[in-house]
UniProtKB/TrEMBL annotation:
<dbReference type="InterPro" id="IPR004279">
    <property type="entry name" value="Perilipin"/>
</dbReference>
<dbReference type="GO" id="GO:0005811">
    <property type="term" value="C:lipid droplet"/>
</dbReference>
<dbReference type="GO" id="GO:0019915">
    <property type="term" value="P:lipid storage"/>
</dbReference>
<keyword id="KW-0551">Lipid droplet</keyword>
<dbReference type="GO" id="GO:0010890">
    <property type="term" value="P:positive regulation of triglyceride storage"/>
</dbReference>
<protein>
    <submittedName>
        <fullName>PLIN3 protein</fullName>
    </submittedName>
</protein>
<dbReference type="GO" id="GO:0005829">
    <property type="term" value="C:cytosol"/>
</dbReference>
<dbReference type="Pfam" id="PF03036">
    <property type="entry name" value="Perilipin"/>
</dbReference>
<comment type="similarity">
    <text>Belongs to the perilipin family.</text>
</comment>
Length: 110
């Protein structure tokens, strides 16, 4: 999970979602109270079950973690977008589209 979260694409996407969530909470006081209550509930449940579940499943988690790390490495080789932040991917895509549109315009005008 940490390796996935550390990927630039995932990390920057989480930052964007987090900023939107925080902005929404600030803009709408009614939603803020609902979100705060939901956050506290999730935190309580997580704290109550995490230590028990992790202790029981620790050997299995270690094996799955090893396979997941290998899978992420292979995925990273095949998808060069993963280490890039969302902003860079959007910028690169806009640049590519702009170049292609200019090429099409030039071809049509010729």
């Amino acid at each position: 999970v940490k390796e996935v979260a550390d990927l630039s694409l995932v990390s920057s996407a989480c930052d964007v979602v987090s900023a939107a969530y925080a902005s929404t909470k600030e803009s709408h006081p009614c939603l803020r109270s609902v979100c705060d209550a939901a956050e506290k509930g999730v935190q309580s449940v997580t704290e109550a079950t995490a230590s028990c579940v992790l202790a029981t499943l620790e050997p299995h988690v270690a094996a799955v973690s090893e396979y997941a790390a290998k899978g992420l490495d292979k995925l990273g080789e095949k998808l060069p977008l993963l280490p890039k932040p969302v902003e860079q991917i959007l910028s690169d895509t806009k640049e590519l589209l702009s170049t292609r549109v200019a090429e099409v315009k030039e071809a049509v005008s010729s």
